Each structure stands twice: as structure tokens, then as C-alpha cells.
Amino acid sequence: MNPSLEMLIHIFERAALLLICLFFLTRVPRFKESLHREQHTLSERIIITLIFCLFAVFGTYSGIKVEGSLVNVRIIAVMSGGILFGPWVGIITGIVSGVHRYLIDIDGVTSVPCLITSIIAGIASGLINIKVKKSQRWIYGIAAGMSCEVLTMLLILAMAEPFKLGLDIVSKIGFPMIVGEVNVGLIVLLVMSVEDEKEMIAAKQAKLALDIANKTLPYFRSINTESLKKICIIIKDQINADAVAITDTKIVLAYVGFGEERYNIGQEIISDLTKAAIRSGEITIRNRVSDQPTPEIQSLLIMPFEERGEVTGTLKIYYRKASKMTYPLQTMAIGLSQIISTLMEISRVEQIKEAANKAELKALQTKINPHFLFNALNAIASTTRRNPEKARELIITLSSYMRYNLELSDEFIDIHDELQQVHDYVEIEKARFGSKLQVEYDIEKVNLKLPSLLIQPLVENAIIHGILKTKGPGTVTIAVNDLGDKVRISVKDTGAGISDEVIENLYRDDVPARQIGLYNVHQRVRLIYGKGLIIKRLSPGTEVYFDIERRKDESDHC
Q1: What is the C-alpha to C-alpha distance for residues 145 and 186, in angstroms, rounded to an integer?
Q2: Distance CA 500, CA 110 (A)
Q3: Please, which contacts does 168-172 make with residues 24 or more away whose CB atoms are closer than 8 Å?
Q4: Which residues contact 232 (CB under 8 A, 6 or more apart)?
Q5: CA–CA gap between residue 197 and residue 367 (Å, rounded)
Q6: In 407-468, which residue ranges form alpha helices assigned H by DSSP?
Q7: Where do the H-state alpha helices sit in 105-181?
Q8: CB 318 within 8 Å of CB 242
Q9: CA–CA gap between residue 426 and residue 491 (Å, rounded)
Q10: Are the C-beta atoms of 468 and 503 separated by less than 8 Å?
């Protein structure tokens, strides 16, 4: 057999061994996952660089000796590493393998040329990785590899003494070494075929995310504890997770699966990882968890929900098995969290509209409520006989109150306009009930806009269900306090007091029709500001308050 052809076959055999090793590496989950990533961590780059350095050094050691030179696959390993994984891998592999080649044969005819071209191959491979489209890298890899081998032959001819020796070496190894660089293209194509799986994985996981979204869609029509639990169950079953949780920025809203008995709905978030994810708005992935109240959990994925650029909660996925957060799962979960964020925002908007409609209906009922109007006119009529001037003031107050209700819209209004409406309502009620009703105001000066009809229903509730339920006189205190980062609005009474059952029903969204006014305010406050009414039993009486946080986008409501 022709010696050049025989050497070419040997080169292909050694390149085939490299291909086989790479093939098995691509079957290793951790290595395969690193191929799917656009960016690699420092540890991953170090490991990949070591692998290709070993391939290149092995390529030198497994070379065929010809007249003081080595027919080997070193340049193939250098070019493949740089093209596939970037300049870091290519240049370091080129330097390490080139220096190694020089040191094992310092006085050899080809040692210096091989050192030079190994480093040049590393640089060239890195440039191909940066400058050339993925689909064309294999072709450029073959061309660059062949060019490096041609340069090696030219350097051997230039540096060999005598020249005849260099010419003899080049005549024997030139053809197989140059043609053997075809293997660069084969290796690049092999590894890129694994990378191409990423597109198929993305498509498959996108379909899974859409399937989950389709199954959970009915439960987004009315977001509450039960619907969120159903959503978690669907996600858990679809992705075979051990546990799934949904939180807002403060508390756990739903938790299903392993460790469920350790979590209470409404429990404050205690995980530092979750708090950090809410603060940063970044997805958190942990394959070996150290920050976890359930020690059996080994892997977790925390994905913040965002609405209008602000984090409103998280979706958390748990596995008891370590290293379970693979690239396919991450791809699906990220897409799913984005879909759920959108669905929750749409649901919230729809619920706000629904609550607004209910509030508008309630307002209309107040406007045309014949009992309220009849009682107010009766109070004015009786006052006319005793105090005509006071009756005149009450008529103006009633007129102002009715005009305010007629002009209601769904836009945010200045808090002082809302308080004026409350004052008008209170004056009418005081005229009706006389000394039985005392009202105090603790109003600090604040610059704030809020939806209409948030405060008046609370005052009405305090009077009708609080003060009027007792025999003696009572006091209602209306307060607006500036707490720096938030404004607290509270209504407190010394009346009969609210029962625990009513409070529990309110928080469970299980409210009878006669308490719909308080529930409407609770729903609207929760949907608009993220947290509903806080109700406290006093001795005697009840306090109801809510906080409005000062935010950068507060001016949007102005």
C-alpha cells in the first residue's frame, strides 16, 4: 500500500477514536447540558479545556514517527475545541499541546514548526467560533486546519537543516496531515448535532408549557386559594415534580406535594433564596440546595412573576433528587412562568373590572337607595323645626354627597375628595342618630390618589354593624397616617365588634350577600395594592385598615 495512503488511514483511525470519545461524552447528561448552553460557567470551561488538552496531547503521543516527525491529530483536537467552545478552549489547548510537542522533542526537526502552528490553530479556531455562523463552522474548520498543516510543512522546509531532510519529511507526511484535517469538520458536525437538539428540546418544552397553560387557564378566571392549588397540582403532575408552590412577595399562596404538611397557606416566606429572587427578579436554580426548610428537597427552581416590570410573586418547583434541574426543564419552566405571569395579570385586570362593576352597582344602590334618602330627608325635616340653619347645611351636605356619587368614575381620585364625600355621609348620619354617634378624624396631610368608594363603605359598616348594634353611644375614628414608605387608612369604632367567623369568611372569599360592601372593598384593595383589608378585634369595637405603598409608578394614577 502507498505509505502516504497508509498514514492517512492511521490519521482517520485516531480521529475516529477522538470522535468515539466525544460521542460518549455527549451522552453524559452534564456534558450534554453544557453543550445546550450559550454561555458556560468558569468551571465548565476549565473542564472542557482540560478534555481537549488531553485529546491534543494524546494525539501527539499516538502519532506515527516519520524521519524525526510525528504524523498526528493534535491540530484536529485544537481546531475542534476552539471552534466548538470558543477562544478560551482553542488558545489554551493550542499553547499546552504545542509546548508539550516542543518539550518532548526539543531538538527535533519539526518541534518548533509544530509549536508555532499549534498556537496559530488555537487562535484561528477561536476566531471561527466568534466570526463564523454555526452552520458554516465545519467548512471553515476544515479549511483552517488544512491551512495550519500547510504552514507546518512550509516552516519545516524553512527551518530544516539540511533542506533535503525537511523536503523528505514533507513529501511523506504532507498529504496525509493536510487531508486528515477533514476530521475537524466531522467532529464539529458531530457535536453541533447535539447542540441542534436544543431547538427540538425548546419546541417540545414550549408545547408542554402551552399544554400546562391550557389546562390551568380555567382556574385563572378567579384566582383564590383553591384555584392556585389546582394550578400547582397540574404543573406538578405534568412535569413530575415532587412539589410546586406559588407565592406572592410576602406569603405562600399555594403548596402541593412533598412536605405539604409543613407549609400553611398564608405563612410568611422564610426561604432566603425566595426572598433574594423576589428582590432581584432573577430566576434561581439550585441542584444541591442548602437553603431549604425541607432537607429532603435537593433541587429547586424559583421563577419570579412580573407584572408591569414589578415582581408580584414566584413559581417554585421542587425535586428530591439532586441535579434534576436540567436544561430542558429550565427551558420549559421559564416559558411557563412567563405564560403564568401573563395569565395572572390578565386575571387580575379582569377581577379588578369585575370588582369595579360590583362597586359601581353598590354605588348606584347607594345613590338611589330609597331608605337612605328617606331617612336623610326625615332627619333634615325634623331639624328644620329645631334648627333651620343646621337644616340648610344638611341640605347642602346631602346635595354634595349625591352629586359626588353621580360623578363617580373608575379613575383614581385625590384622597381629599374621597374624604370630603365621607365627611358628607357622616354629617347626614350624625343628624339621624344624634348623640349616639360621634366621629373623630385623624387626617395627616398626604399627596395620594386612590380609587373612589374605598373609605365610605368602611365607615358605613362601622356605623351600621358596629355603633348601632350597641345600646349606648359610640365613636368612629377615621385616620389617614403617613408612615413614610406607605400611607395607612383606617376606620375604627367602639361598637359591637366583628366576629371571628366574619373575618375568616372574608379571607376565604366566602362572604354572604349582606356583607358584600366590606368584601368589595377587601377585593378591590387586594387586587389593586396586592394585599387586602386588615381587620382587628378591639375591646370594644373593630379596626379595619389597609396600606398603600408609595411606588415609583404612583404618578401613573395621578
Answers
A1: 12
A2: 91
A3: 168/67, 169/66, 169/67, 169/68, 169/69, 169/109, 169/110, 172/3, 172/4, 172/7, 172/66, 172/67
A4: 244, 245, 246, 254, 255, 256, 257
A5: 65
A6: 415-433, 456-464
A7: 111-131, 137-159, 163-179
A8: yes
A9: 13
A10: no
When pLDDT is cut at 50, 70 and 90, the band that residue 196 belongs to is low
Query: Rounded to an integer, what is the distance from CA 466 to the centroid of its chain?
Result: 45
- pLDDT tens digits, residue range 443-452? 998 988 888 8
- Select from 502, 511, 515, 520 the least CA-distant residue to 361: 520
What confidence tens digit (pLDDT) does each residue in 248-295 have? Answer: 888 888 899 887 877 778 888 888 888 888 888 888 888 776 656 667
Q: How many CA atoms lie within 13 A of 552 on its CB side?
A: 3
In the block, residue with C-alpha cell 518541534: 111
Angle at the Cα of 528 from the Cα atoms of 527 and 534, rounded to 5 degrees: 70
Tell me which residue has cell 499516538: 62
Residue 129 contacts by C-beta under 8 Å, 6 or more apart in sequence?
82, 83, 84, 85, 86, 87, 90, 137
Kind and range of the H or E element at 438? strand 437-443
Signed CA dihedral, 253, 254, 258, 264: sign only: positive
Per-residue pLDDT tens for 25-84?
A: 766 766 666 665 666 778 888 888 998 899 889 888 887 787 767 778 889 989 988 998
Which amino acid would we find at residue 458?
L
Query: What separation, in Å, do the N-terminal and C-terminal C-alpha atoms of the chain show?
Result: 89
pTM of the predicted protein model? 0.43
Torsion of CA 115, 121, 124, 129, to 10 degrees: -130
Q: Which of 219, 184, 193 is nearest to 75 (CA)?
A: 184
